[in-house]
Design brief:
Residues 428-550 form the Malate synthase C-terminal domain. By secondary structure, the protein is α/β, with parallel strands linked by helices. The protein has helices at 2-6, 24-27, 32-64, 76-80, 106-113, 132-147, 193-205, 229-246, 262-265, 268-274, 286-296, 316-331, 350-370, 383-394, 407-412, 417-421, 430-448, 463-478, 494-512, 514-519, 522-533, 542-546; strands at 16-18, 97-102, 119-123, 151-154, 159-162, 169-173, 180-186, 189-192, 220-223, 254-259, 279-284, 336-341, 374-377, 454-456, 459-461, 482-485, 488-491. Helix 17 crosses helix 21 (522-533).
């Protein structure tokens, strides 16, 4: 308690202003040296990030004008060249099943590390609502997890949670380049969120990975939302600066890039080439990829998606994306990771639970047969079934990187530009509009209240599925899509959406209960979601638009006035 009474503020270096609530536990993360490290990253790379974000906007304007995403002729030599990424580190050769989840609460982190998965991806991005409390508790949790000291006592149950002798390897996903951190200012501007997430975690934990005494022993990361190799080049520069500052072997840091935007699928070789000394492969971030498909083609009425439940891996453009990713990764000697299984156990219905598990098994069998080296699960209850599928196919091998006969490896070689953008097929319905609205509003209400990973209708939803719901509604309304309403055709209009929102809000209130509905942020979420679905211009990200609603500044938190 001494720290809080003698200096209830953060000891920030020159030019850094911390405006989040002071807490002695957070102060152990936000040390003067750690903040100086983050500020150094911000000052060196903010210009390149700003340029990259402007290039994103310019590319979108070209797509809006009718241009289609293509492979870049200027980088043909990279795509055609005979080069490879750095060898796969033995510590992460086997990634057959990875579990994902937010970096807080503490018990969830412990359970994920103890889950039996090979990797736990601790998330500061789509599965975490970026409140100050969540971000700082997440950093505390991961520091203690890396040290092996993390524990939690559930007083209500009289249970103590600690790490098992064997735990999952820890990967960390910082936020995307586009998201700010409004609670930390550097030279008067909000810091770039991912540099805060990466910088604090790396500064406090890199030393624990030195036991490997060489390249590829970590720390390990997942990198989200990239659209172009220039963004990977920035990350590579960040890694090089961090390794040099820490005095660790170049190439120690390894990162898997989530290919979850349509433009990025045309840049996979280029992204790997930029990160070739730090690469741990690519991942099919398929839910965000669907979101990006809609956003990229928002002005193209000939590319309207069907109901989101119909946009699975059997769609040609999705299957082509998966196969090209496998071919690209294995050609360059790195992991090709599969997508998320979002199902959660259905405890009160054994038959429904088994049916859901069977869907998971089929999806994972498709992935491993195609050539994926591992996959994602949202819940520990899925891990035994997924491990059984992957391990049964791999038969003792840690991965399929050297398997030239895999389906994706063979078919991926023939994937062309048209395959990657082929319009999906399927019905568009009023029920689909209703489900989008119901899921989008409930997710946003939870996000505003501080939860970024939300169980809804037996699926674990994060920001990606809420984004699909939002942009699909917007696209249908923008182009007046014909929707089936039980055999009757209706046009998607603002008036129809207003009626759907009113009716679905009533349904949500009935499902969650009147008291919880009134105490929660459902009404606010409904207004935001409706506004975004009917906006003249599509906002890039739901969470970026709503971010200021969860920012809580505490003037005087820094610098210390002693």
């Amino acid at each position: 308690m001494a720290a809080s009474t003698t200096a209830a503020c953060y000891d920030a270096p020159e030019g850094v202003d911390v405006r989040g609530r002071y807490d002695p536990e957070f102060a152990a993360i936000l040390t003067r040296d750690a903040l100086a490290f983050v500020a150094g990253l911000q000052r060196e790379f903010h210009g390149a990030v700003r340029y990259a974000m402007e290039q994103r906007r310019k590319a979108q304007r070209r797509y809006d004008a009718g241009e289609l995403p293509r492979f870049d002729p200027a980088t043909a030599l990279v795509r055609d060249g005979d080069w490879a990424c750095a060898p796969v580190p033995p510590a992460v050769a086997d990634r057959t099943v990875e579990i994902t989840g937010p970096a807080t609460p503490r018990k969830m982190v412990i359970n994920a590390l103890n889950s039996g998965a090979k990797v736990f991806m601790a998330d500061f991005e789509d599965a975490l609502s970026p409140t100050w409390e969540n971000l700082m508790h997440g950093q505390v949790n991961l520091r203690d997890a890396v040290a092996g000291t993390i524990s939690f006592r559930d007083a209500a149950r009289g249970r103590e949670y600690r790490l098992n002798d064997q735990t999952a390897k820890l990967f960390v996903r910082p936020r995307g380049w586009h998201l700010p951190e409004a609670h930390i200012l550097v030279d008067g501007e909000p810091a770039i969120g991912c540099l805060v997430d990466f910088g604090l975690y790396f500064f406090h934990n890199h030393a624990a990975f030195r036991a490997g005494q060489g390249a590829g022993f970590g720390p390990f990361f997942y990198l989200p939302k990239m659209e172009h190799s220039r963004e990977a080049r920035i990350w590579n520069g960040v890694f090089q600066r961090a390794e040099k500052a820490a005095g660790i072997t170049p190439g120690s840091i390894r990162a898997t890039v989530l290919v979850e935007t349509l433009p990025a699928v045309f840049q996979m070789n280029e992204i790997l080439h930029e990160l070739r000394d730090h690469s741990a492969g690519l991942n099919c971030g398929r839910w965000d990829y669907i979101f990006s498909y809609v956003k990229t083609f928002r002005a193209h009425p000939d590319r309207l998606l069907p109901d989101r439940a119909l946009v699975g891996m059997s769609q040609h453009f999705m299957r082509s994306y998966s196969h090209l990713l496998i071919h690209t990764c294995h050609r360059r000697g790195v992991h090709a990771m599969g997508g998320m299984a979002a199902q959660i156990p259905i405890k009160d219905d054994a038959a429904a639970n088994e049916a859901a598990l069977e869907l998971v098994r089929k999806d994972k069998l498709r992935e491993v047969r195609a050539g994926h080296d591992g996959t994602w699960a949202a819940h520990p209850g899925l891990i035994p079934a997924i491990r059984e599928v992957f391990e049964g196919h791999l038969r003792g091998r840690p991965n399929q990187i050297g398997d030239a006969a895999a389906v994706g490896q063979l078919e991926g070689a023939g994937v062309g530009e048209e395959d990657l953008i082929q319009p999906p097929r399927g019905a568009r319905t009023v029920d689909g509009l209703r489900l989008n609205t119901r899921v989008g509003v409930q997710y946003l209400a939870a996000w505003l209240a501080g939860s970024g990973s939300v169980p809804l209708y037996n699926l674990m939803e994060d920001a990606a599925t809420a984004e699909i719901s939002r942009v699909q509604n917007w696209q249908w309304l923008r182009h007046g899509a014909a929707l089936d309403a039980g055999g009757v055709e209706m046009r998607a209009t603002p008036e129809l959406l207003a009626r759907v929102v009113e009716e679905e809000m009533a349904r949500v209130e009935a499902e969650v209960g009147r008291e919880r509905f009134r105490q929660g942020r459902y009404a606010e979420a409904g207004r935001i979601f409706s506004r975004q679905c009917t906006a003249p211009e599509l906002d890039d990200f739901l969470t970026l638009d709503a971010y200021n609603l969860i920012v809580a500044h505490h003037p005087g938190a820094s610098p210390c006035k002693l």
